[in-house]
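TEACHING EXERCISE
Course module: macromolecular assemblies
Task: Read the component lines below, then compare them to the predicted structure of the full complex.
Student: A.B.
Group: 4
Components provided:
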Amino acid sequence: MSDPLPEREHALDLLHQMLRIRRFEEKAAELYTQERIRGFLHLYIGEEAVAAGVMATLRPDDAVVGTYREHGHALLKGVSAASIMAEMFGKQEGCSRGRGGSMHLFDAKARFYGGNAIVGGGLPLAVGLALADQRAGLSRVTVCFFGEGAMAEGEFHESMNLAALWRVPVLFVCENNRYAMGTALERSESETDLVRHAESYRVPARAVDGMDVVAVEAAAREAVEHVRAGEGPRFLEAQTYRFRAHSMFDAQLYRDKHEVEQWRGRGPIVRLQTRLREAGWLDDDALEAIEARVRQEVADAVAFAEAGTWEPVEELLRDVYTEVPR
Amino acid sequence: MSRTTYREAVRAAIREAMQGDPRVFLMGEDVGAYGGCYAVSMGLLDEFGADRVRDTPLSESAFVGAGIGAAMGGQRPIVEIMTCNFSLLALDQIMNNAATIRHMSGGQLSIPVVIRMATGAGRQLAAQHSHSLEGWYAHIPGIKVLAPATLEDARGMLPTALEDPDPVLIFEHAGLYNLAGELADDAGAVPIDRAAVRRAGDRVTLVTYGGSLHKTLEAAERLAGEGVEAEVIDLRTLRPLDDATIMASVRKTHRAVIVDEGWRSGSLAAEIVARIMEQALYELDAPVARVCSAEVPIPYAKHLEHAALPQVEGIVAAVRAQLG
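Instructor-supplied answer key:
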């Protein structure tokens, strides 16, 4: 039983947002093989519905803490595709001035707080950002994304407990893509029902089909409303799947191709497209119009990144400490 | 002037900061109802309430990380960790977040958090409550590391640290909390970017900090009785180091002994020796010497603990050996 589609413009926008991520990531992979992007590159392909559904429920002044697989979250939180691409090129026009790279996208104006590449390391930060809002009397929400692998970390348990004790306005979103790098959920958790972990801290929690953007949005909207109302933290498990390798160095020996193909068949983009066509809201021309907009955005991002400049080596030591005017 | 203690001086600094800025709050294990494991925050819960003085669960990583996040979100948290041995449970947050986020964000974000913790040995608390890890933390770019050794610094370093836009770690030697003396009634913020000459002398430079300052001053008095005037430098700030004050003294005395409660290998003392080699080698009349803790987890038994730590006799002996 699917959640009803939202109104037409919004439903089409959800498709647009997911396609922005998909095409951006495909281009990033291509540029990686051309060695224009280096370091680690973790693609979000297959998981787009989670970021798209959750971000649709946020206000511009809400905060997001992401993981090292965060290009899509940054993009949908309002960080420009151009500044993300430039960051991955290592250019000083990048959203982190080329100091962070793919895993450390930051944008203070967009209230996008990384880009954290220590599994579980972003959860305490999210509790703190929410605590700051709570103390300041602001009705803002902090959303913290992490994978199911993070739930084996002590920082998950410590953060859930602290957030629940202090009733801080955080929405914890577990992106359960079934593999912590190459370790299947059944091999990393004694209790594979992840919702129960959160509930043990008396944090209201639920699981949602993370391949269904409409369902993710509905669940996130309800959770965000409670969090914003000052009712304390919430936990949402989005059951999803990563179509591509963990990073560009992954031979995927730990899962068989058949499993990947099965999940691809129920991918979030194809699924929403099917529903939109059935509703009579999308045809080939309309889809091509969306794809063309996305193609242009990605092409512009690549052009911006290519035109970007290298920070002079003389500036190597900047931004370690705040330069205090003397 | 008023009679006070190091503990009371830290408490006065916290109280003044809380009175002056609603963004300032204190959090840590047992800082509220218990009054702090070293009684530093005694009475503050009653005075400021549970929003400003927050007892945390025993979750160093979460509450230190929450302090970092709250600082990033515009607050001015003071996070207390019971001892620096426990800070290792929060090392991920301190090293991977507090020290890096300004840099990783290309300078967009500041982390104005202050993290206080007790350090050091001498109370027979054995190998999980007695270590001096401030030298480790001084290794990390992106944070500042302070070691108040006097009543003035106990009172004055915290307000300056809270004004600093970057993360500041303050190491309070557990043996100093009962240190008593006179403190000016108008004592307040002090600079945190320079070392201090605590005793002037011309025969040898003794470089130290924190809990070892008082042992070093006592050694200097004993040496003065033998006609040897030692200059004693209190580093105060362990990162960034004030090279200029050290080198100016070495150029005057031509001899240096470093006294550091950290272990010798890979230590802050080693770093200072290296800097003297780099900047003042040809000024020296003798090899630089070090008095550090013995390379052993700090033992429980009183005589063994005493033997493991820098002591006045050892400092005096090291100076005598320098003078030949």
